[in-house]
């Protein structure tokens, strides 16, 4: 040994082992401020898995301030000796081996007489630990004294504080011993034997000390899971990289991140939650191309159009997530999905709804040109008009994941659609199904033959022209199915029947009770939302193999089938449009399941010519609907522009309208007069209605909304009903009935649903007689006396004129009033002989209109009493359950039947549900799967947090010092 350098001679080891040694040395040496160990930095020199396996260090290293730890090899119990049998993992060059050898040599030296020539020379290992006299105090950290360790990781801090505390306690004990005589060896020196004994009693094995401390570190609780911290760090890092990339995008080759500019976590969630491994289970060229377009990366507007089921929605979702996560921007997703958003179908070419979407887009384009607009659609004939309107680029592709084969059926022959043929059709085959004479009478269109070719192995959709026809066709098919259909997934059908019965509070549709055992069901607006959801889920999972449905199922609902059958080329009495036909047949073909999809349109000979143009004609054009229904959309647009101060002068109005789709198509839509003449007529019409006023200014005329006009556009009230609503509310103030909800319910019954109401007079009279005297007087006051209803029942003519709209509105108000009292939709539907789906639609429409009336009243001071009254009524209409269930009904996915189950089980508030254990919840509540329980708890927690945040915001506002506080 070189005494001058005071080094330990060690055996030469490989660079890999020296790296391990240096890592452990760093782990066991007090870290400096801000210092940590990163396994990522070391992974280039040695394999992480190797040292994990050698030392079982997964949990040992748990609380040290690592940045990333990617591999966890194995876990050990808290009490296990993690170093048992592995003390010499680095042979004689390991740190623990050195400590062990040094300590043994120290003990031997203490045991040898001081003058013994054969004494073993103790190596000086000051390069690893502190001087010898500090080792005798059983602490390698004594030299640090009482300095603060607040910057150290928790595990090292705990280790050092424990050793310092033991050292201080030992010093005190030794101080007490100084008063006792010490034995000497005659030279004034303390007896070696006594010293050795004292050192043996005082000093503990450094190796054991390190073992125990590291085991303690592994067992100590951590506030956050290391895995969670790692995942969060990775996601944040990827988002940061993507944000930087997006700020510097210059061309389409720029790499935006691991998943189209999104963190890998998003890709993992798409895979785990929706089974999407790439973009369509496989990498689709069009999706990848679309997402990497230069205009998309530069945030320009884009319209991409593909056939139905081409995978358009997923691309939109990825683009939205990119805006939310990476650019921290808000997004507006306007959905055409009927079921998802309760029949709010927004498409530019769709009547009044098309006018709404056009107004919205035009305002966005005018107010903030930096907003990116992404439009998606099926193939259109005039896509260039939309490009001009949105100032957007276009991406078009004819991709479809499953090939679609279109057929028509005439009598017992099947023809393939072929536009190249002279008549558009080419003979394919004859139906091979034996019909008896009785079957031929019941099923002249051979629907049974067509469906039994595919079910129950494959799925089938049968589109019918009316709701009643859906039910009749489903019942008819069941009459001729074999008993084998009853055995197919029998147990799951039983569960579905039970769930349907629970959703109806013990009641169930007799048609569904008959058809579901065979694997069939019908689907139309007459079903409640709960029934539709259960039927759709059962069909998606294959429990049901056939649905008879109306055309509403075709728009946006992802319920594909192997074969789609169109019972007739009509919707009610109207011949199908090309777009409707394409939506229906577009349901054929299940991606990842079928290699082909089939559609069959059943025709009568009289419809052959019209059908040819239906299936072979080019796609229809999309036109502006601002002029729809005598320009109602344009009137609403002008009123809101003035009210929002977007356009308050003639020039500003002209400038705004030049950015609408109506302006692009004015030659086709305003052929008889110029667009500017139309606008002037609309402004005059608003003035006549008392919604707009004109002020003379030196530089011209200025347009302002009146109080009534402001209430109209802020309440989103149809202009046709604005004045009527004002009169009804004014009249209501004169004698408002407050001992029941009837009067208020009447005031919020929607005007636009009256056309669907045909009162049954005997039912009207029966329900009228159940009202209290005060309620009957209220009915007479609005214009529906009992005498009028009696005369209608008797078939007598009424001499005095009665407003039938008021009569219908009162009838619907009685339906809602009865529903609020009984909260049983099935019994109310039976009493009024109405479909339960219609009553549910009436309820949701009334709830929405109640909100409109509330905002309308808030803008007019004379209607101040309605503010508090309508707030409570809107809450009742939104859920239509007993008061104690309303908090639970706020949770997404909780319907009335589920709310009753939760309440009965003790989960009576949002707080109960938010703090519930999903595993226990799924065991307690019948037919509640673990995944559903997790979703319910997560939704409840989100609601609780939102409510708490809202309350905290109110507190902050109250405690905030006013900015305009007067100063002395």
UniProtKB/TrEMBL annotation:
Residues 102-128, 168-201 are annotated as: Disordered. SMART domains: HELICc. Residues 180-199 have a biased composition (Polar residues). The keyword Hydrolase applies. It catalyses: ATP + H2O = ADP + phosphate + H(+). Residues 446-638 form the Helicase C-terminal domain. Residues 102-111 have a biased composition (Basic and acidic residues). One of its GO terms (molecular function) is 3'-5' DNA helicase activity. Keywords: ATP-binding, Helicase, Hydrolase, Nucleotide-binding. This is Helicase, POLQ like.
């Amino acid at each position: 040994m070189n005494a001058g350098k005071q080094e330990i001679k060690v055996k030469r080891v490989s660079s890999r082992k020296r790296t391990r040694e240096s890592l452990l040395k760093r782990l066991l040496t007090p870290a400096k401020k801000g210092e940590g160990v990163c396994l990522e930095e070391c992974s280039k020199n040695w394999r992480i898995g190797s040292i994990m396996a050698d030392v079982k260090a997964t949990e040992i290293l748990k609380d040290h301030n690592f940045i990333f730890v990617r591999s966890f090899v194995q876990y050990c119990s808290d009490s296990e000796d993690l170093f048992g049998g592995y003390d010499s993992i680095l042979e004689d060059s390991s740190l623990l081996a050195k400590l062990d050898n040094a300590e043994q040599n120290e003990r031997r030296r203490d045991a040898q007489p001081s003058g013994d020539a054969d004494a073993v020379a103790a190596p000086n290992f000051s390069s690893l630990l502190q001087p010898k006299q500090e080792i005798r105090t059983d602490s390698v950290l004594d030299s640090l004294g009482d300095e603060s360790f607040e910057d150290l990781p928790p595990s090292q801090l705990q280790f050092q504080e424990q050793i310092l505390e033991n050292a201080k306690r030992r010093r005190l004990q030794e101080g007490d011993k100084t008063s006792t005589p010490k034995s000497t060896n005659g030279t004034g020196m303390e007896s070696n034997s006594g010293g050795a004994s004292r050192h043996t009693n005082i000093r503990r094995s450094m190796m054991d000390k390190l073992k125990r401390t590291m085991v303690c570190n592994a067992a100590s609780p951590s506030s956050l899971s290391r895995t969670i911290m790692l995942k969060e760090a990775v996601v944040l890092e990827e988002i940061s990289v993507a944000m930087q990339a997006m700020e510097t995008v210059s061309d389409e080759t720029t790499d935006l991140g691991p998943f189209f500019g999104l963190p890998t976590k998003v890709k993992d969630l798409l895979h785990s939650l929706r089974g999407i491994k790439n973009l369509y289970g496989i990498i689709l060229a069009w999706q990848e191309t679309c997402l990497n377009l230069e205009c998309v990366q530069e945030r320009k507007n884009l319209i991409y159009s593909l056939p139905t089921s081409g995978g358009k929605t997923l691309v939109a979702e990825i683009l939205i997530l990119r805006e939310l996560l990476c650019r921290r921007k808000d997004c507006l997703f306007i959905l055409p999905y009927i079921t998802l958003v309760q029949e709010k179908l927004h498409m530019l070419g769709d009547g009044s709804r098309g006018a709404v979407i056009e107004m919205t887009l035009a305002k966005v384009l005018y107010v903030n040109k930096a907003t990116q607009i992404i439009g998606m659609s099926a193939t259109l004939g005039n896509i260039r008009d939309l490009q001009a309107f949105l100032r957007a680029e276009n991406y078009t592709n004819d991709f479809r994941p499953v090939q679609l084969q279109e057929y028509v059926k005439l009598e017992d022959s099947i023809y393939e659609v072929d536009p190249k043929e002279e008549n558009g059709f080419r003979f394919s085959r004859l139906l091979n199904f034996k019909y008896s004479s009785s079957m031929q009478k019941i099923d002249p269109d051979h629907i049974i033959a067509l469906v039994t070719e595919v079910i129950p192995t494959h799925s089938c959709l049968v589109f019918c022209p009316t709701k009643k026809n859906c039910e009749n066709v489903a019942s008819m098919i069941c009459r001729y199915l074999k008993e084998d259909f009853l055995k197919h997934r029998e147990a799951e059908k039983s569960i579905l029947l039970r769930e349907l019965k629970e959703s109806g509070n013990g009641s169930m549709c007799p048609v569904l009770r008959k058809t579901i055992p065979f694997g069939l069901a019908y689907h139309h607006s007459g079903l409640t939302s709960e029934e539709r959801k259960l039927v759709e889920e059962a069909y998606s999972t294959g429990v049901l193999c056939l649905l008879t449905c109306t055309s509403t199922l075709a728009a946006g609902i992802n319920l594909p089938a192997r074969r789609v059958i169109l019972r007739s080329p009509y919707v009610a009495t109207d011949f199908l449009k090309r777009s409707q036909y394409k939506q229906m047949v577009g349901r054929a073909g299940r991606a990842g399941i079928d290699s082909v999809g089939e559609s069959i349109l059943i025709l009568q000979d009289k419809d052959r010519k019209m059908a040819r143009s239906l299936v072979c004609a080019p796609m229809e054009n999309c036109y502006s609907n601002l002029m729809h229904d005598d320009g109602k959309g344009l009137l609403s647009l002008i009123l809101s522009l003035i009210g929002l101060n977007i356009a308050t002068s003639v020039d500003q109005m002209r400038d705004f309208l030049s950015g609408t789709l109506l302006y692009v198509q004015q030659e086709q839509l305003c052929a008889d007069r110029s667009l500017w003449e139309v606008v002037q007529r609309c402004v005059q019409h608003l003035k006549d209605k008392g919604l707009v006023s004109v002020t003379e200014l030196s530089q011209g005329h200025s347009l302002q909304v009146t109080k009534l006009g402001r209430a109209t556009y802020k309440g989103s009230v149809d202009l046709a009903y604005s004045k009527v609503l004002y009169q009804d509310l004014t009249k209501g103030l004169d004698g408002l009935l407050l001992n029941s909800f009837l009067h208020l319910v009447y005031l919020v019954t929607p005007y636009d649903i009256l056309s669907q109401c045909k009162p049954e007079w005997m039912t009207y009279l029966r329900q009228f007689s159940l009202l209290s005297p005060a309620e009957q007087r209220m009915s007479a006051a609005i214009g529906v006396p009992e005498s009028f209803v009696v005369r209608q029942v008797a078939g007598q003519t009424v001499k005095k004129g009665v407003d039938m709209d008021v009569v219908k509105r009162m009838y619907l108000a009685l339906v809602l009033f009865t529903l609020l009292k009984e909260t049983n939709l099935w019994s109310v539907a039976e009493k009024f002989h109405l479909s339960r789906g219609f009553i549910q639609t009436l309820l949701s429409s009334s709830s929405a209109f109640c909100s409109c009336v509330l905002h309308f009243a808030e803008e007019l001071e004379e209607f101040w009493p309605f503010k508090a009254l309508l707030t409570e009524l809107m809450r009742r209409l939104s859920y239509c359950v007993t008061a104690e269930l309303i908090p639970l009904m706020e949770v997404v996915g909780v319907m009335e039947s589920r709310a009753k189950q939760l309440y009965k089980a003790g989960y009576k508030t949002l707080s109960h549900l938010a703090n519930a254990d999903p595993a226990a919840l799924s065991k307690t509540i019948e037919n509640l799967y673990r995944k559903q329980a997790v979703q319910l708890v997560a939704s409840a927690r989100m609601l609780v947090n939102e409510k708490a945040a809202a309350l905290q915001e109110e507190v902050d506002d109250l405690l905030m010092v006013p900015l305009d506080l007067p100063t002395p």
